[in-house]
Design goal:
Elements (H helix, E strand, L loop, with lengths): L8 E10 L3 E6 L5 E5 L3 E2 L8 E7 L2 E4 L19 E10 L3 E6 L5 E5 L3 E2 L9 E6 L2 E6 L8
Parallel strand pairs: 4-12, 6-10
Antiparallel strand pairs: 1-2, 1-5, 2-3, 3-9, 5-12, 6-11, 7-8, 7-11, 8-9
């Protein structure tokens, strides 16, 4: 059994797309893409491409026996706090994999090196990781094509 402790760290990214009910955030350093519902963003401002986001995130562990995860702390009424969440792997390719986060909280698509597993990385497998709501911490004036 793989014995590795996944720890959340504060990360950042830029909003690339804004739809009626969700945003797409490109992680700094070309580390992946996270799509979340607007309700997970702690702001009253109108979200736009170029907004700088800050949030907690961890490596992803593939698990055979998932916990009974609780997403009830994924609310914006308090300071952002990492939550241990579960999800299902929905896509795997040579370089990356995508997880659909439980309870309709969005998707995470990151390089394979972000996944810790001693079982094959395959679609349909359960995964767990730390994640939090997102804070808007600024705005960059750059063309959307550059994000």
């Amino acid at each position: 059994m793989l014995d590795y402790m996944i720890n959340p760290i504060k990360m950042g990214g830029l909003v690339k797309e804004v739809n009626d009910d969700q945003i797409k955030v490109h992680l700094h350093g070309r580390l992946g893409v996270i799509t979340v519902p607007n309700r997970l963003v702690t702001t009253k401002k109108k979200l736009e491409p170029g907004h700088e986001m800050e949030f907690y995130f961890s490596y992803i562990r593939v698990v055979e026996n998932p916990y009974d995860y609780d997403s009830s702390d994924m609310i914006t009424e308090h300071e952002i706090t990492p939550c241990l969440l579960g999800g299902k792997i929905t896509e795997v390719n040579d370089t990356a994999a995508k997880v659909e986060i439980m309870d309709g909280l969005g998707t995470v698509a990151v390089p394979r090196r972000w996944y810790f597993t001693d079982i094959p990385l395959e679609e349909g497998k359960d995964a767990e990781f730390y994640f939090s709501c997102m804070d808007v911490v600024g705005k960059r004036d750059i063309p959307v094509e550059s994000i």
